[in-house]
Amino acid sequence: MELERCFVYVAARLGKAYRITGDRKYLDFMFSEFKATTDYLFDKKSGLYYRDDNYIGKLDKGTKIFWSRGNGWVFAGLTDIIRELNKGSKEYKYFVKLYQKMAKSLKKLQTSDGYWAMSLEGAHLYPTPETSGTGFFTYGMAWGVNNGFLDKDEYAAVAWKGWNALQRCVTENGMLGYVQPIGAAPGSAWPDKTEVYGVGAYLSAGTEMYKLAGN
């Protein structure tokens, strides 16, 4: 399982355990571990996460390596964590601020055709469409608009642009293509390559886009 997926999945489950039981030990542990990981792997200037410490300071032809799907797991996962927290709490404020900072960074990195490149700051190095990262980011953007965390005038167009890009990667038979295979860094994707996590991201995006269209 990819590292970022484990990272946010465990955090969201601990948040849910806190909400169900009311026992702060779950919340305190989740918050301290998430913050420690973020302090280590989050690049404050870029507003993005490194996949792991192997990529801190490493450059790909002069470009920092921020993997699209890895950041997608985190951005989408933050929505699950925020749902479990009490509004106004220090934890709630922390995660909302982090989510909004990532959204601001990701908005700037969306390509002209609506995708997010496999290496977020290296679109010129990875011009092939990629739908798993794009799916997660589209979902996160639409969720933020629908729930009042992101300004509609600024971010709805970002979500629609991402959604339209995803649509162009669905074959006549209904298969979502251009999903990068399981990995740990930017790589390759093909029009006939799909994976369940890419489809999951696409369907998640679709549920929020449906709500956005209704609004």
From TrEMBL:
Annotated keywords: Hydrolase
Coiled-coil intervals, chain numbering: none
Pfam families: Glyco_hydro_88
Keyword Hydrolase: yes
The keyword Acetylation belongs to this UniProt entry's keyword annotation: no
SUPFAM superfamilies cross-referenced by the UniProt entry: Six-hairpin glycosidases
Top-rank taxon, per record: Bacteria
InterPro entries, alphabetized: 6-hairpin_glycosidase_sf, 6hp_glycosidase-like_sf, Glyco_hydro_88, PolySaccharide_Degr_Enz
Molecular function via GO: hydrolase activity
Protein's recorded name: Glycoside hydrolase family 88 protein
